[in-house]
C-alpha cells in the first residue's frame, strides 16, 4: 500500500556538470524527477557498454536550454523493473566529464564490474561526440511550468511552446471533487498550494520499530480526520457554500492552504509506512459540522483537532527519538506548521495567538479517546495499541469572574461512593497539575498559573506522570481555554 514514491534529481545545478544524486537506488514504481538548471543539458538513457550514446527504446528528455534556477522544467521517468539503468547528459563532452548517473546499479559487493563507479570510469573513456535521439521526449514526461510537452518536434526545447503539442492537467481546487484516499499520491497542485511537498531525500533507517509504526498509523488517522474537516470546511466557505462571505478571501485562502498542507502531511506519513511495508489506515466515517452548523463550530472543531495533533506529534517525537530518530524531523516540521495555523485560529477566536512557550504533549491514547468520542461514527479497522473502547465523554463548563476560577464537570457515573476523583490539567509540555473534584457539586478549582489551551481529564489518582494518566483515566480528555491572569 502507499502513494507514488518520487525522488528529485538536480541536473547541472550551480553550473556543475553532474546529476545530484547520480547514484539512485529505488524500488520499482518510483518516479525519478529530473529538475533542469542552466545552461543546456539532457538526460538520456544509454547502455553500460556504450555510456555516451542513446540506447534504442530508452528514455530521453531532449536538450533543455534554461536561463534560471529553478527553471520550472522537469522530466519524469518511472522505474518499471529492477534492471540497472544508465543515463548521461548528451551536451558536448558533459558525459565524458562525469555527468552520468545510474538507477539500481549493482553494488561493489557484487564484484560484477558493472557498478556505478565502473560506469563513471567507462564514460570518461568514451569517444566524443555524445549524441541524443533525434526526437524527444521519449520514455518519460516532460513538463514546462505545469504544461506537459508531448513532443519537441525535434530534440531541443524551444524558447516558446507555441506550435508544440501540449496538454495541461487541470488543477483540482481544494474543496471540490473527491478527496484522495489515504495511500494515494496527491497531484502536484496541492504541493504548490501547501507551500511545499513531501521530503525528497529521506535518509531511510535500516529498520523501523513496531512502536513507531503504531504511532504513525494513529497519526495518519488523526491527519485524515483533520484533512476531511478542512476539506469540507473550505468547500462551505467558498463562493456558493453554506458559509460563503463569513470570512475575508485571505482567510478562506489560508484555510485552503491548511487543507493542502494536511494532505501533504498525510502523504508523508503514508510514504514512511509504505516504505517499511506497514499498512496505511483507511478513512473512517467521520462526524463533521453540517451545513446547518455555524462556522464557529467548524473553527472550534479545527482548533481542538489541531491542538490534539500537535500534542500527539510532540508525544511521538519524545517516544521515538531514541529508537527511530530519523522520523523526528518530519514530525516536528509538521508540528511547526500546525502551530502556525493554531496561532491564526486563536486570533480568529479572539484569543492570544501564542499563549505558551511550549506546545502541549498529549499521550496518543488520550487523543484517540477524544477523536472516537467526538468525531468518529465508525472505522473499518482497529489500530494497534489503542484501547477497545474510548473513555467516558467529559463535559466542562468554566465559571468565569475576571478569569476562569472553577470548572463544572459532567460525565457518566460521576464519582462513586467512597472514591475520590481528580482533575488533571495538562498544559504546555512538562506542565501537569492536579486538583481534587468535589463529588457533591462536581466542581474543581482552576490552577492559578495555567492559561491558554489546556487539556483536562478526570483520573482516580493524583500525583501521576503524564505517561501514567491513561492507566488511571476515568473521563476525557476535553479542551478548555483559560484567559491570561494578567
From TrEMBL:
Q: Which Gene3D superfamilies match?
A: Cupredoxins - blue copper proteins (2.60.40.420)
By what name is this protein known? Phytocyanin domain-containing protein
Q: Which organism is it from?
A: Chaetomium thermophilum (strain DSM 1495 / CBS 144.50 / IMI 039719) (Thermochaetoides thermophila)
Amino acid at each position: 500500500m502507499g502513494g507514488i514514491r518520487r525522488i528529485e534529481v538536480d541536473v547541472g545545478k550551480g553550473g556543475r556538470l553532474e546529476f545530484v544524486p547520480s547514484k539512485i537506488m529505488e524500488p520499482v514504481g518510483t518516479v525519478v524527477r529530473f529538475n533542469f538548471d542552466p545552461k543546456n543539458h539532457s538526460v538520456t538513457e544509454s547502455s553500460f557498454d556504450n555510456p555516451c550514446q542513446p540506447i534504442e527504446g530508452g528514455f530521453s528528455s531532449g536538450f533543455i536550454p534554461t536561463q534560471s534556477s529553478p527553471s520550472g522544467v522537469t522530466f519524469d521517468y518511472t522505474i518499471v523493473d529492477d534492471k540497472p539503468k544508465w543515463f548521461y547528459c548528451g551536451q558536448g563532452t558533459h558525459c565524458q566529464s562525469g555527468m552520468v548517473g545510474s538507477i539500481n546499479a549493482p553494488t561493489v559487493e557484487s564484484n560484477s564490474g558493472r557498478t556505478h563507479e565502473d560506469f563513471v570510469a567507462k564514460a570518461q573513456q568514451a569517444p566524443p561526440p555524445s549524441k541524443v535521439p533525434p526526437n524527444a521526449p521519449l520514455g518519460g514526461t516532460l513538463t514546462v511550468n505545469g504544461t506537459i510537452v508531448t513532443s519537441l518536434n525535434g530534440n531541443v526545447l524551444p524558447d516558446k511552446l507555441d506550435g508544440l503539442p501540449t496538454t495541461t492537467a487541470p488543477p483540482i481546487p481544494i474543496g471540490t471533487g473527491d478527496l484522495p484516499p489515504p495511500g494515494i499520491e496527491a497531484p502536484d497542485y496541492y504541493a504548490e498550494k501547501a507551500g511545499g511537498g513531501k521530503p525528497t531525500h529521506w535518509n531511510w533507517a535500516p529498520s523501523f520499530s513496531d512502536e513507531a509504526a503504531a504511532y504513525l498509523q494513529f497519526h495518519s488517522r488523526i491527519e485524515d480526520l483533520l484533512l476531511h474537516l478542512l476539506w469540507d470546511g473550505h468547500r462551505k466557505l467558498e463562493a456558493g457554500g453554506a458559509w460563503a462571505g463569513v470570512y475575508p478571501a485571505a482567510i478562506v485562502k489560508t484555510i485552503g492552504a491548511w487543507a493542502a498542507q494536511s494532505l501533504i502531511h498525510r502523504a508523508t506519513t503514508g510514504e514512511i509506512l509504505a516504505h517499511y511495508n506497514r499498512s496505511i489506515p483507511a478513512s473512517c466515517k467521520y462526524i463533521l459540522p453540517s451545513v446547518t452548523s455555524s462556522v464557529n463550530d467548524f473553527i472550534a472543531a479545527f482548533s481542538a483537532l489541531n491542538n490534539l495533533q500537535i500534542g500527539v506529534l510532540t508525544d511521538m517525537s519524545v517516544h521515538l527519538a531514541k529508537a527511530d530518530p530519523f522520523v523526528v524531523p518530519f514530525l516536528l516540521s509538521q508540528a511547526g506548521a500546525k502551530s502556525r495555523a493554531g496561532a491564526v485560529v486563536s486570533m480568529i477566536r479572539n484569543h492570544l495567538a501564542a499563549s505558551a512557550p511550549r506546545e502541549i504533549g498529549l499521550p496518543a491514547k488520550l487523543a484517540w479517546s477524544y477523536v472516537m468520542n467526538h468525531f468518529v461514527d465508525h472505522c473499518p479497522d482497529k489500530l494497534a495499541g489503542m484501547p477497545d473502547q474510548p473513555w467516558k465523554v467529559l463535559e466542562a463548563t468554566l465559571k468565569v469572574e475576571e478569569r476562569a476560577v472553577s470548572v463544572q464537570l459532567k460525565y457518566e457515573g460521576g464519582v462513586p461512593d467512597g472514591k475520590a476523583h481528580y482533575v488533571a490539567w495538562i498544559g504546555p509540555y512538562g506542565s501537569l497539575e492536579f486538583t481534587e473534584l468535589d463529588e457533591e457539586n462536581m466542581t474543581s478549582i482552576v490552577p492559578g498559573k495555567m492559561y491558554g489551551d489546556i487539556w483536562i481529564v478526570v483520573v482516580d489518582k493524583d500525583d501521576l506522570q503524564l505517561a501514567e494518566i491513561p492507566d488511571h483515566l476515568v473521563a476525557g480528555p476535553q479542551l478548555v481555554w483559560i484567559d491570561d491572569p494578567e
